[in-house]
Specification:
The protein has 2 domains: 40 residues, no CATH class; 79 residues, no CATH class. The protein is built from 7 helices and no strands.
């Protein structure tokens, strides 16, 4: 899987793959999704089975940690985990833009915290995060 926000790397990789594979192999192995020209949307935090929300949460955190381990720390992981957990409990479906809003908008965050029944979430956002 390659996620390329600018598109240049993706085009280069596709060129290399066309050289590496026969046309039939290329067509059966390569899936190219360009969100600018399709309605296909990918949400890595989408939950189909709510009982597995913690698996989705930790898988997403683990993927980010692997991608950005040079800039990773315990505090970052704790904040992201709690932001996503808060959204899973209070404002599904969870999206990356909502995670950013939790971190940037204190009134939105406090509204969500007040609506959750999980006291560990409330404790984190009102006692630890500040």
């Amino acid at each position: 899987m390659l996620i390329d926000p600018h598109g240049m790397l993706a085009r280069d990789v596709l060129t290399l793959l066309r050289r590496e594979y026969t046309e039939e192999e290329y067509n059966s192995k390569v899936i190219y999704i360009n969100p600018k020209v399709t309605d296909y949307k990918i949400n890595p935090l989408q939950i189909e089975d709510y009982s597995k929300r913690h698996i989705v949460l930790m898988s997403f955190i683990s993927a980010l940690k692997n991608l950005y381990e040079y800039a990773w720390g315990d505090r970052l992981e704790t904040i992201l985990r709690n932001a996503i957990h808060l959204l899973m409990e209070s404002d599904p479906p969870v999206t990356l833009s909502k995670v950013a809003k939790v971190l940037a908008d204190q009134r939105y965050r406090e509204m969500l915290v007040k609506s959750t029944v999980d006291k560990s979430i409330e404790y984190f956002w009102f006692s630890i995060y500040p």
